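ok so I'm stuck.
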Amino acid sequence: MAFFVPITVRAYEIDINGHLNQAVYHQYADHARWEQLRVAGIEREKMATAGIGLVVLESNIKHLRELHLGDEVTVSCECQWSGGKIYRMHQKIRKLDGTDSAQFDVVGGVLDLAARKLVADPAGQLRKLAESPEVLGL
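replied:
not stuck anymore, here's the structure
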């Protein structure tokens, strides 16, 4: 199940070339991931109390089309849980006309904050904390 967050490109995010700064694409993707967790019922404080945190191990972006001031986009998140210590997420930044602006492939994990190691079952850890696990595809 895909999750979507709407964003409008703001003036301070534009670079000298007149399009969205490349670093902001990553910020949009990160914002969408945290919103997905929030909607699932997992706030940062809840994870901290449980002694876990999320980590991005790898984030690859493919830029497809420019974004400009005022462009309205949706940022999607689609989790893939396959067992083991990592999970994968596919994200797209898409203009309202359906044009894909960027695609992300992210590898993440759940970190045991005391041991500073990845937990064995990230899906299980998040499922325990989530009020709406289906938002995360669990």
